[in-house]
Amino acid sequence: MEDIELYRYFLKDSVRKTIDFRVTDQNRGVPVPPSEAHVDKQLPRISLPDRKIWGPVITETNLVDAIGNRRSRRNYSDAYLSVEELAFLLWATQGQRNPGIQPAHFRTVPSAGARHSFETYLFINRVEKVPPGLYRYLPLSNELVLLYLIDKQSKTRLSRATLGQGFIASGAVVFIWATVPYRMEWRYLQAAHRVILLDAGHVCQNPYLACEAIHAGSCAIAAYDQEAMDELIQVDGKEQFTIYLAPVGKY
Ligand SMILES: Cc1cc2nc3c(=O)[nH]c(=O)nc-3n(C[C@H](O)[C@H](O)[C@H](O)COP(=O)(O)O)c2cc1C
Fold this sequence. Notes:
By secondary structure, this protein is an alpha+beta fold. It has nine helices and seven strands; from the N terminus they run H-H-E-H-H-H-E-E-E-H-E-H-H-E-H-E. It has a seven-stranded antiparallel beta sheet, with helices on both faces.
């Protein structure tokens, strides 16, 4: 098959038709993989406000206006996001839909088979009460875990890893989504990868819309150096790797 045809084939439903779903790990009784990647218990955590707390802080925005005004914004001011605004953005991208009422695999974004293969890393420059650092979001407990503190050099590393697109590292916070493909492969085998990409689009659309409610802007980013990004967020590039980014900042 010509290269271009091979890649088009990947976009189609053809892969699914070749799969014997009786032999998926799910159907062979392999235990369901955890919905959150392992986290070192020694690392410091920050508890985030829940919807009862951030809800009254976020100004109501007409959905039609949010959709109509959405655009990719690449110029950010030096203003800080509040921790409530960050919690709102995290809820919009990966938050549990009805924590304690519905199972944790029901989120504010859809996902094929409710598998949610993503981990959210945050390069935090300017969020009130949160020291600048590289964090991971834990959606099940609504916490941030600090992986390491960042400095000027980390910003340079992020800029290089995003192919010199300098505006990205100037965001108040940069969302970096990684995928754990096995979470999806457990159910769909080779048909997992196409739906992982479809899922990623849903995740990245929500900060665009949520930003409209907090006078902030975002921009989807798919141009980056894979190995450099994976190194920055400390993932192995095999079982977990970067899939998409979005800086967010006030304008
Ligand atoms: C999958 C995807 C990848 C993108 N990657 C980048 C990127 O690396 N850098 C960038 O500046 N914009 C990127 N964009 C933003 C597009 O350039 C932008 O959506 C397009 O120009 C249309 O503008 P609008 O979003 O304001 O409607 C990306 C958008 C998508 C959906």
